[in-house]
Amino acid sequence: MKNYILILTAVFFVACNSIRVKEETTVNKNNALSQDIFLPEKNGYKLVWEDNFNGTELDTTKWQLRSMGARRIGYNDPSMVKVQNGNLLLMYDIKGDSVMGSMIGTGNTFMTKYGYFECRAQLQKSVGPWAAFWFQSPQIADGEDPAKYGTEIDIFEYFKELGDDVLTHCLHWAYGPNQQSCGQMVSQYEEISEGFHTFALEWTPEKYIFLIDGLKFHEQTAGLSHVDEYMILSMEIPAKLEGIKKACAPDTFIVDYVKVYKPGQTHQISIPLSQ
Fold it and tell me: How is residue 24 annotated by DSSP?
């Protein structure tokens, strides 16, 4: 245990006290499919659910702590989730020999399918832990048909080791030995690492569309889910100790709001009973 603590301490010290040199890149301003800004209200959508994270604690009628306990090289801890100054703080930290992350979800409070889903957030600063906004189905491990059992929809993940200005999106279904994925979709967006940005998914019966700041970056028809799913926000922990060698602790994924839009008045929302 002492050796493990020394390793974690050394990793933290080197990562946070090294002189960082920004590498020159050839990344374009963005690789969006269109430079037109998508506004949900002007495209037939109506706001039906939102959380602006006002107050001083998590609204448990909307979100609950999720997957607390062991996760990869560390664990998710309730102390890493805070609400203050109108923001949700999902944190990553190292304390002693403990590597901690955070996660919340709407699995017991709000489930739905199809619509426009958006969060406004500021991403983490470190390489290693990563911010994510995603959907998951409670039945995803029960079968291999995504239409019937659902799909993990990664609206975005920010793996900073891929570059400061790079986001990824992915789809996974049929959890288990026959799991399938769509392949990683990569978005390049200049200065995504600075300030707040919006990250969104338009999910229809025909396709998924992934957006950043209203710009459409990807369309995908693989792994279409036609079942109710729940939203998740998380600050993820790497699977190996070497994954946090360049990380600074603490680090924070800051969320300003999450909003859900549905087409006109014909929205469908499922709110399961609390377990």
Answer: P
Residue 116 near residue 92 (C-beta atoms within 8 A)? no
User: From CA 3, how far away is CA 166, in angstroms rounded?
Assistant: 35
Taking CA atoms, 115 is separated from 51, 111, 252, in Å, by 16, 12, 28
Q: Which residue has the tokens 């990664």?
A: 154
pLDDT tens-digit map of 223-260: 999 999 999 999 999 998 888 888 889 999 999 999 99
CATH architecture, range 2-17+45-270 = Sandwich (2.60)
Is 100 in contact with 107 (CB distance < 8 Å)? no
**pLDDT score of 270:** 55
pTM for this entry = 0.88
Q: 112: how many CB neighbours lie within 10 A of its CB? A: 22
Specify whether the CB–CB gap between 159 and 169 falls below 8 A: no
